[in-house]
Amino acid sequence: MYNILVVDDEEMIRRLIAKYAAFEGHTITEAGDGMEAVRLCRENSYDILIMDIMMPELDGFSACRQIRKFSDVPIIMLSARGEEYDKINGFEIGIDDYVVKPFSPRELLLRVDAIMKRTAARNQFPSGAYEQNEIISLAGGGLKADLTARIVYIDGVRADMTPKEYDLFFYMLKNRNIALTREKLICEVWGYDYFGDDRTLDTHIKLLRKSLGKYAGYIVTLRGVGYRFDAEE
């Protein structure tokens, strides 16, 4: 079972999540604002955070940025708004999932379970799919990826990507010049037990293209199918 920190300025929301989580055997700690969440994360260890965006003292986005300076704990963001801008902003600072209010507590806990399973698998086999010191160099060395170290260089400058951007990019690199359906990408990168909006894939593709800069064109959209990474070493 998981040790979960629930951060929301609405006590009713916190109590609702805590009720369902406790029923499934999880341990819950509550915080009413972003500043308290950052303090608790510095002082304690949690398996996953569930955090609202709109809060007093320190909003959820700002709290996530502070927490990401010292912790890679998985984070699910809650919001009353479902605009793509908010989702992109959240994924850019490293959240793992985004849930729009009102939500089903059962759905929320299914997402928690899915994220924790993926996190456990990644930690157990951080580079198991790659050979030692496997490096892929494209565009005459302008785009270089060290798959073992999880480092990407763009024209000699180290790229700053979120963990999920790395996962998506490396999977597409390993399967370059192959048409990848949306279902295949979601299953392989997010996991067969992925529970969530499949538009998350499109949002991460946008983020990945932004990170790749002038090499973004290597990611080709296949309308009605998915995507393909077109590149030769």
Explain what this protein looks like in three dimensions.
By secondary structure, the protein is α/β, with parallel strands linked by helices. The protein has two domains: 122 residues, Response regulator (Rossmann fold), CATH 3.40.50.2300; 95 residues, Winged helix-like DNA-binding domain superfamily/Winged helix DNA-binding domain (Arc Repressor Mutant, subunit A, Orthogonal Bundle). 41% of the residues lie in helices and 21% in strands. It contains eight helices and twelve strands. A five-stranded parallel sheet has the order 2-1-3-4-5, sandwiched between helices. Strands 6-7-8-9 form a four-stranded antiparallel sheet, covered by helices on one side. α4 links the parallel β4 and β5. α6 packs across α8. It is elongated. The N and C termini lie far apart (45 Å).
Q: How much is the average pLDDT? A: 88
Q: What's the Cα radius of gyration?
A: 18 Å
Let me know the largest β-sheet.
Answer: 5 strands, parallel
CATH homology-level superfamily of the largest domain: Response regulator
Main sheet strand line-up: 2-1-3-4-5
> Can you identify the CATH class of the largest domain?
Alpha Beta
Strand content: 15-25%
SS class: alpha/beta
| Count of DSSP H/I helices | 8
Tell me the count of domains.
2
What's the shape? elongated
Give me the CATH architecture of the largest domain, please: 3-Layer(aba) Sandwich
The helical percent reads: 40-55%
Short description:
This protein is α/β, with parallel strands linked by helices and 233 residues long. It contains eight helices and twelve strands.
